[in-house]
Amino acid sequence: MTTNQYIITIAIISIGSIITRFLPFVIFSEKKPTPKFITYLGKALPATIFSMLIVYCLKNVSILGGSHGLPELIAICAVVLIHLWKKQMLLSISVGTVFYMFLVQVIF
Amino acid sequence: MGKKTKALKAAFPKTIPILAGYGFLGTAYGIYMATSGFGVLYVITMCIVIFGGAMQFVGVPILLAPFAPIQTLIITLLVQARHIFYGIAMLDKLKDIGLKKLYIIYGVVDETFSINYTAQIPDDVDKGWFMFFVTLLDHIYWILGSVFGAVAGSLIKFSTEGIDFVMTAMFVVIFMEQWKKEKQHYSAIIGLISAIGCLLIFGADSFMVPTMICILVLLAVFKKPIEKEGGYLDD
Question: Which residues of B touch A22 (CB under 8 A)?
């Protein structure tokens, strides 16, 4: 690619991203009432999104090969337990991450 | 204390996990770009005008391949399609907050959406400015992390392997917090089943779009029970 082609490619990626981000706001403007089904989606979607994001983070974990997803499973259990116990978001996240790093660097 | 300062002070603590996560992911991205032959200027530009972790990683092989504008656009729309979901979920929350809204929409990424959607913003804090600062701080962390990776990545001596788990841990905790608030768990379970099912069928590289279609269909099918139980996050 030439420098101009680099710039055009980056611009296309930027514009594509902007389209996906602004699309709902362009289609459903503040002036017109939002269709009922979309209002329903707006409320029902977020819970599905958080499930989807957890799976998304773990998508490259191989159950059959490597460490069989064990470090991920153990660390997630640790995060859940610490969070149920202390209910401190930052504590659960940081202890869970350090524990995971220990697992993948030392144990597995 | 001014309205903005107050919002900034409320927003900053919520973004600390993202500071850690982007510090690492950004560094990884910066190193990847540097080893692929792109200078700091490219890194900064892409962080500013794209601002999306997954997409920027995908963008590196696209930049190294022959010029293919249409294909690039299609890949971008597919990888970024989940932002449409975030937008629909944020429609109500972004009403009546003025022009700040444009930057907040521009800066929607997984992490920013998660914070902006779920944060319990105190009543005396301006919600628009709160979301604005969460977005801005995340954007800055992402740029700084990436630049650091591009210029100094090779100097890191201790092993940071596994630090990317900070994002997984954050989403798990947010998931738990939401689970507690919900009166029904249909949506959460629909998301989990769709994502795992599609991951197994379509594989790691192409399961997100099928997952989203699956979620939409299932939400439409289970609309009655979900509405009846009234388990919306806000209610």
Answer: 87, 105-106
Domain boundary among B109, B133, B163: B163
pLDDT of residue B56: 92
Taking residues A40-65, report their average pLDDT.
Answer: 87
Q: How many domains are contained in chain B? A: 2
A47 and B171 within 8 Å at the Cβ level: the answer is: no
Here the tokens at position A16 are 């594509």
Which residues on A lie below 8 Å from B162 (Cβ)? 71, 97, 100-101, 103-105
How many CB atoms are closer than 10 A to CB B2?
9
* A93 to B17: CB separation less than 8 angstroms, yes or no: yes
3-class secondary-structure state, position A101: helix
Say how far apart CA B26 and CA B190 lie, in whole Å. Answer: 31
Residue A30 has pLDDT above 90, yes or no: no
Q: Which of B112, B135, B163 is the last residue of a domain?
A: B163
Segment B13-20 mean pLDDT: 92
pLDDT in tens, A64-89: 888 889 999 999 999 999 999 998 88
The three-point CA angle B90-B164-B180 to 5° equals: 45
Residue of A nearest to B172 (CA): A54
Placement of tokens 């800066």 in the chain: B107
Q: Do B187 and A92 touch (CB under 8 A)?
A: no
Q: Taking the CB of residue B227, how many other CB atoms lie within 10 A of it?
A: 14
Is B169's CB within 8 Å of A53's CB? no
Judge whether A61 is closer than 8 Å to chain B, CB to CB: no
B165 touches chain A (CB under 8 A): yes
Q: Give the per-residue pLDDT at A25.
A: 93
Domain span at residue B233 reads 182-235
Q: Is the pLDDT of residue B232 over 70?
A: no
In this structure, are B85 and B120 located in the same domain? yes
From the CA of A2, how many Å to the nearest CA of chain B? Answer: 9
Q: What is the pLDDT of residue B231?
A: 52
